[in-house]
Amino acid sequence: MSTHSALPRSSSLGCWRAKFFVKILHLRERIPWFGGHSGYEQLTRQVHQLQSVQTVRPREGLLARYSGSTYARFHGRYGRGATSLSELEFRWQRRWRRPDASHVLYLENHFELLAAWSGKRRDVVGTIHLPPAVWKAEQLQLLSRLGSALVLYQRDIPFFETHVGRGRVQFIRHGADVDFFKPAPEKVCEPPRILYSGVYLRNEPMLLRVVDRLVKKYPDVRFDLLVPVHHRSSPALAPLLQHPSVTWHAGLSDEQLRELYQRSYLMLLPMNESGANTAVVEALTSGLPVATTDVGGIRDYAGGDIFPVVPNDDDAAMVALVEQYLNQPQWRNETARRCREFVEQNMAWPLIAQKHLEFYQHLSENGVG
Question: For residue 26, what pLDDT is reported?
Fold first, then answer.
C-alpha cells in the first residue's frame, strides 16, 4: 500500500464492515467500447453490493442531448449533449441528497463540471485516469476545486498533489472481473498467437518494427490486432493491413473478447504512456502474460515484478523478451499463473470496492481524502 494511502493501516479487507452508512453519489459514464465486464464504471455495481449508491449517468435519446446542450450554452459553456445534462443532474443530486462522498468516476470527461464551481467542494472526489502529459494547464487549474482525488497508479501522485492539495490524492488500483475473465490453458493456440489491443497512448511504430523482426525469425507465429476499423489505416498500422500473419478484430462481444484473451499465448503492448490500462488488466486476469514498456502505471500492475518490462522504444529488448516467452513455455506458463494470482490477491472487484468504501467513510469522518 502506498504511503500516501488514506485507508487505515489496521483495516482488513477480509473482515471489513462499514462503521456507519455512508451516503454515496456516483457520476459514471457510458463507454461505448466497453462491454458488461470491462472498465472502471464497474465500480458502481460492485460498491452497490456492499451498500446502496445513488447513480447519475448520461441519459439516452435526443431529448437528453438537446436539453443538456441547451442548458450548457445558456450558461456560456460548450454544449456536450447528454453529458452536460448528467452534470446538471449530479449537481442537483448533491444539493438534494447531501452525500458524504460525491464521486466523479471519469474526471477527465467532466472539466465543465469543475468549471461551474467557484471554489472547493470537499465532498467531491474525482478519479484521475490519464498521465500528466495529456493534461492542459487550464484543466490542471480546475483540480483545486476537488475535495480529493483518486489515482489508479502511484507514479504521478506528487504531481497531482501540487494541484489538488498535499495528502488529498490517494491510490487505489483498477478492479478486475475475476469471475468473467479467467484463464483457460486448454484453449491456448499452437502455433502461438500474440495479441495486441487498443489505440490510446500506444507506441504503434514500435509495434510495427517488433512485429517485422519477429515474423522474419518466427514465421509460424500469428498476430491478433484488436483495433477499431477506422484506426487501422493510421500511418504506423497501415503496413500491417494485408499482412498474412495478422488477423484484425473489432466489435467483439464480451464472450468473444474473453475467448481472444484465452487463446493467446502472449500480449504484445508497446506503449508511450499509461495509467491503468484496461487491456493489461484484462490480460493479467485471463492469465495472459504481457510484454510491454516500462511506462506510467505498469509497475503498479505487476510489471517489473511478476512479468518483465522493457524500456520504451528498445526494440531489441522487446524482441528478446518475446523470444524468451516463445522459447521457454514452462516459464511462460508460470508467469501466467503468477499474473492471475496477483490479480486475485490485489485487484478483484470485491476487494477494490471495499477499498473505495473505506475511502468514502474516511472522507466522511475527516472531511478530506
Answer: 97
Q: Of 321, 303, 304, nearest to 266 (Cα)?
A: 321
The 10s digit of each residue's pLDDT in 260-286 is: 999 999 999 999 999 999 999 999 999
On whether the CB atoms of residues 288 and 188 are closer than 8 A, the answer is no
Q: Which domain holds residue 354?
A: 24-175+348-366
The grid coordinates of residue 216 equal: 522474419
CB–CB of 160/146 below 8 Å? no
Other Cβ atoms closer than 10 A to 251: 9
Q: What is the largest CA-CA distance in the chain?
A: 64
CATH number of the domain where residue 82 is located: 3.40.50.2000
Q: Are residues 170 and 192 in the same domain?
A: no
CA distance 250 to 257: 9
Q: Look at the block and give the residue holding cell 465543465.
A: 112
What stretch of H or E contains 225? strand 222-226
